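hey m, so remember when u said the tokens were messed up on ur end? i reran from scratch. heres the input so u can diff it against urs
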Amino acid sequence: MKEFYTVGEVSKIFNLSTPTLRYYDSIKLLSPWKSGENGYRYYSKAQFEIISMICFMRSLGTPIKRLKQILNEENADGIRKELQRYTKETDRKIEELKRLKKKALNFSRNIVDSCDAPFVRLEETPAFYLMCKPFGSEDELDIEEILNANKSASKWAMSAGIISTITRENLLSGNFHTYEKYGYLSEEKYPSENPYTETIDPRICVTANMKINTVEHFEADEIYGKIMTYIKDKGMKITGPAIERNILDLYSGNRFNPVMFFKIYIPVTI
């Protein structure tokens, strides 16, 4: 193995661009070992370990300013602390990726379930976590009011479904367009409790898919009618409000009137 290497050779060995090496030289982070009589500048193989460490620490996201400090320390404390920082940050990212994967799986399952599954059926639903409020006479969909009660809720809400509820009394009277509450629903627990949070334990529900093509939601009456007939024919009793969960909206060529896919949950006793 030879002793000295040109900028181009070091660039190929460590997969560093020559502009990057020249920049490191200009800021005194890493400079060639010597200059030859031909005007070329050479790195020594004795620098390979520190070049490797610079490459590694930069791959961990260590800022150049911090790296210069670390390299000029007389002990390994700086390196150790930087590695601890990276380890903690990596653990945080891993947990975030796991959370996003779980959300993606839930979202995918809900889309398939809402678009492709049989129409009306009986199923045991998982625990649901709601963040919702009663409808008001003004600005009924003030979603921000719900989120502002919990600053960490915005990320949670990104994968939660928008929901509305219909009281048992309105269901029984056939009033399917008067809503009690609105907000968010997810299978993932909300970050922390606030005045709008609510947990629904696993339970038996009659569920149905609903595809809406009209602004007025005319399709809802027919679908709810079939659900109520199913409940009556099976001799079941409604035990709580219906949850109307928005699963997916698609422009379908008209962004002012998208096609909306919903899933309806009505808790019952068998």
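this time it looks ok to me. The chain has a mean pLDDT of 90. if urs says something different then somethings off w ur setup not the seq
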